[in-house]
Each structure stands twice: as structure tokens, then as C-alpha cells.
Amino acid sequence: MNKDQVKGTAEKLKGKVNEAIGRATDDTKQEVKGDIQQAAGQARKNLGDAKETVKKS
What are the boundaries of the region Disordered (predicted)? Predict the structure, then answer.
């Protein structure tokens, strides 16, 4: 695992937490923030996955 994979996974987790808190408190703004964080985390993880694939080739 490289740093992009780790940071991407961490960002996704933070996003899930923010989304859950937003739902629980009926705070749409926080829920959307969580969705955006999850998308950004997934993008970073995908970048890390691609780097690992290139590195193994």
C-alpha cells in the first residue's frame, strides 16, 4: 500500500462519518460534505491503486 491508498481510505472514512452525522442531525450540508469527502477519498485511492499497478509492471 502506498500513501495515496492510505490517505484515500482515511478520507473516505471521514466522509462516511460526516455523512452519518449529517443524517442523524438532519444537517443536509454536512451530509453533502461527507459525500464529497467520500468521492475525493475514492479518487485518491484509485490514484494509489494505479500507481501500485504501474509499479508492479
Answer: 1-57
**What is the domain range of residue 24?**
3-56
Write out the three cell numbers for 33: 460534505
Q: Which single residue is written with the C-alpha cell 444537517?
A: 27
**CA 13, CA 20: separation in Å to the nearest integer?**
11
**pTM for the structure as a whole:** 0.91
Cα–Cα distance between 14 and 4 in angstroms, integer? 15
- Nearest residue to 43 via CA among 3, 18, 10, 8: 8
What is the Cα–Cα distance from 6 to 51, expressed in whole angstroms? Answer: 13
Structural domain count, the chain: 1
The pLDDT score that the predictor gives to residue 57 is 86
